[in-house]
UniProtKB/TrEMBL annotation:
Family matches, as InterPro entries: LeuE-type
Keywords: Cell membrane, Membrane, Transmembrane, Transmembrane helix
Record's protein name: LysE family translocator
Protein's membrane topology: Multi-pass membrane protein
Cell compartments where the protein resides: Cell membrane
A Gene Ontology term for the protein's cellular component: plasma membrane
Lineage of producing organism: Bacteria, Pseudomonadati, Pseudomonadota, Betaproteobacteria, Burkholderiales
């Protein structure tokens, strides 16, 4: 039988809630985007994150996760690319300027960019791979992935919206260029700090 079983649903909801609401690369960037661009302009970024996690979960469900089992070097390559790209994003955030910029100088992350980012987001991979192997909403691996993708979408989207909303609420406080620069540098450092577990693993100290 491949039907979804409701007995594991509370565990799936709790997992999606905890992993979506806690700090990570996505939420750090959404907080910064809310401050720098406002909630409305951050909506494509928000939607792209949600869609990207769903696509990642479904891809794992159709067998992508098995590729990492059979070819571990692929996951190592992914981790290296993730670290490099997140360091680049941290630099972009940390060197951001004032809120009121000339048209075309800066912009929030676009929908398709946010989708693509999930493929190099270490936390997103942790979320979907853990969900695929520990949350059993169905005895069918594929159906389980579909069910968890739906849970991530329904539970995760309000959680990430809260981060962008909090950033938007801080816009007036951070309208001062000096305070904004300090904030952006702090967000860049938090983004770098989120790489700590991956960096330890790559350096051979992650156990």
């Amino acid at each position: 039988m491949s039907f979804v079983t409701l007995s594991a649903l509370p565990a799936g909801i709790l997992f999606a809630l905890v992993t979506s609401i806690t700090p990570g690369p996505n939420n750090t960037m959404l907080l910064a985007s809310g401050v720098n661009f406002g909630f409305r302009r951050t909506l494509p970024h928000l939607s792209g994150i949600s869609a990207g996690v769903v696509l990642l979960m479904l891809s794992v469900g159709i067998g992508l996760g098995e590729a990492f089992v059979h070819f571990p070097v692929l996951y190592t390559v992914l981790e290296v690319v993730s670290v490099a790209y997140l360091l680049y994003l941290a630099w972009r955030i940390g060197t951001s300027g004032e809120l009121k910029l000339r048209s075309g100088e800066r912009r929030p992350m676009r929908f398709h960019e946010a989708i693509a980012f999930q493929w190099v987001n270490p936390k997103a991979w942790m979320m979907v791979l853990t969900a695929a192997t520990t949350i059993h909403l169905s005895n069918s691996f594929g159906m389980n992935a579909v069910a968890m993708a739906a849970v991530f979408c329904v539970i995760g989207f309000p959680c990430i919206c809260a981060w962008a909303g909090f950033g938007t609420a801080m816009r007036e406080v951070l309208s001062n260029p000096k305070r904004l620069r300090v904030f952006n540098i702090a967000m860049a450092l938090l983004l770098v700090a989120s790489l700590y577990p991956v960096a330890l693993k790559l350096l051979g100290h992650g156990g």
